[in-house]
Design goal:
Length: 239
């Protein structure tokens, strides 16, 4: 399954190749998807290669070939692709949080023992995926898991945080905030595109998103590449 940005890039590349016979440049891709830097394009390209939608061709300029498109999907016009970001609804639970406030339904006290917390989609603990802003249901949460402020819940997808006791399928309880301390486990938005759950490390002018699984590398970013969307305060697991 592709994220919205991955699908948008794939269709833009396909349409440009159909039109001009060569893929767009990375600058053109960046502008078309309204990303701040080409590093986001590199990550999207890698994800499309890993999922078998495109492949890299050696010893050729702009060496990208589209292998297949998503099922029942046709390519948009170049103009449609380049303006898609402006028209696209806010699908990510954390996308666009600076200009727009994240509007999760408020937690509701059910009785003295439980509080209803909205589940707002999935968060990646592995290869970053989109966290869908879709209030699918509520969960009953013990009040002692919550702190002051607004809370929402996300389903964990992946195993990069297993040594922190966070497993695939767990429900994490997140307190909404835009700052965190070193060592906190946070919901982070990378390049306004990728949502992930990682441990935060700050050093000088860099931000590290650290996994709790030796099979995953720590990712290093500049301060303008990562936005904190919330801090882990609790976890619920079904057996």
């Amino acid at each position: 399954m592709l994220t919205e940005k991955q699908k948008e890039l794939l269709l833009f590349i396909h349409e440009r190749m159909q039109d001009k016979g060569v893929p767009p440049s990375f600058d053109e891709m960046k502008d078309a998807l309204d990303l701040k830097s080409k590093s986001g394009i590199h990550r999207l390209i890698t994800a499309l290669v890993e999922r078998g939608f495109i492949r890299r061709l050696p010893h050729r300029a702009r060496a990208i070939e589209v292998i297949r498109l998503p099922e029942n999907q046709t390519a948009p016009s170049a103009a449609a692709a380049s303006t898609a970001a402006a028209r696209r609804p806010d699908l990510s639970v954390i996308e666009g949080s600076r200009p727009r406030e994240f509007a999760a339904p408020p937690s509701t006290i059910i009785d003295g023992r439980t509080v209803s917390v909205p589940v707002m989609g999935r968060i990646a603990a592995g290869t970053p995926i989109s966290a869908i802003q879709n209030h699918s249901h509520d969960i009953a949460c013990p009040p002692d898991l919550l702190t002051n402020g607004e809370h929402f819940a996300l389903e964990v997808k992946g195993d990069s945080m297993i040594e922190a006791g966070i497993l695939d399928g767990d429900i994490v309880i997140i307190r909404r905030c835009n700052t965190a301390e070193n060592g906190d486990i946070v919901v982070a938005l990378v390049e306004q595109e990728e949502a992930t759950l990682k441990r935060l490390r700050k050093k000088s002018t860099t931000i590290a998103l650290e996994a709790a699984n030796p099979e995953f590398k720590t990712r290093i970013f500049g301060p303008d590449q990562v936005d904190i969307q919330g801090r882990l305060v609790g976890l619920m697991r079904r057996f």
